[in-house]
Amino acid sequence: MKINIAAIGLGHPFEIGYENAETLRNQTAEALNSVGVVCHNIDVVLHDLESVEKAVALLKDVEADALLICVATWSEDHHLLDLLAYVDKPLIIRAYPHRETGSLCCAHQIGAVFTDIGKTYEFVYGEADSIACANQTKQIGTALALANRMEHVRVGAIGGRVKGMTEIAYDEFAIKQKLGARVVNLDEKEMTEKVAAMTDEEAEKLLEEKSELLKPCKVLSSKESMLESIKYYGALKQLVDEYALEALSVKCYTTYMGKVCLGYSILAEEGVMSACEGDVTNALTMKLLYELSGLPVNNTDLLYLDEEKNTILFAHCGSSGFSIAEGEVELAPVRLAETGVCSRFLMKTGTVTAVNICGHGDQFRMSVMTGKAIPCGMEFPGNPVVIRFEKKVEQINQEIMQNGIGHHWMVGYGDYREELRSFCKIKGIKLYEI
Fold this sequence. Notes:
The structure is a single chain. With 434 residues, this protein is α/β, with parallel strands linked by helices. It has helices at 21-34, 49-59, 78-86, 103-117, 131-150, 172-179, 188-197, 200-209, 211-214, 223-243, 261-269, 280-293, 393-402, 417-427; strands spanning 4-10, 38-46, 66-71, 91-95, 121-125, 154-158, 182-186, 218-219, 247-250, 273-275, 298-306, 311-315, 325-332, 342-347, 350-358, 365-374, 385-388, 408-413, 430-433. The chain has a six-stranded antiparallel beta barrel. Helix 11 links the parallel strand 9 and strand 10. The radius of gyration is 25 Å and the shape is elongated.
């Protein structure tokens, strides 16, 4: 996910340090670019109406998740208000530690004004070339970019949710308000009719098209199951293209167990995150983690605590993307039903973030915990991952129950606590850090 920030200067020609306004902005932009932010350095120092109009014109063709206001000196705050009347984007106020310029006191002044008019903002303070400040800005920018990205996401809900799993009932209004995404409700017939329309010959051709991805896999399922599963992939892919979906969920249990799993794995490698059992909210949780990590996300249940080793086993039937596998991938029948095709493999080791989102209305809530994925065996037939935590797993277990967090956990590679904390603040989501 690219982080786009537009940097603009602010100052007053009468104040000490105004002549350095462009240099400060340039140094700030260079530091941001060095840490991987796409910083659009807008060649303007706001100081009068003409400079505001110039900034508006230059920003018209710039894709920016946030405006970084580089406060060089004390300034009249209405110039920034005028700019926001035409370019109303999230703001990061950037102040510098210089005694006589008034940069810091101007930032405080702007903060008071924005608070009174209900405009939210973020704040970074330090030298222009500070890498620590650049990384702080990047972390804020990541959350803002994520919020902006999610506003354009459509998630497919195919067939609704699984019977008897009330916890995962999805609130479309809360999803739109809190996550930004739009739910596209689809009848499962739209999927099954496409499956029925595909011939075995077409399925064979589709398997051949995916041969490079599937060739390293050890196939334990029958040829009949492989053809059926690739047809379901083809149907899901058609729906993804038809409705411009970036995430989806199928009410798989029990009718489509083992039928859609292989399709999920292939779609994950194509950037489409897919959640089991009709859990639409956690399909979007997977999308959040995918945007942050750039890797497929493991859809799991929390299954077993080992108090002695301070680990927790997370696993599900087997539908994760192959690129997060450690070792061989088996294409095998799904557990319980003993049919279809699941992608069974062990997960890579390393730092991981596990996230659950559930609830409705004011109870819409995100829960986050981080740990280390460690080597394990096939402790559950699917995509098991054993995570070691710093906090006692007995305490984690109690906090999950005390806060009504639920049983689905999406596991992504990397530590994204800071980014998700900022995202929840921006979007007004209740956050539990376990």
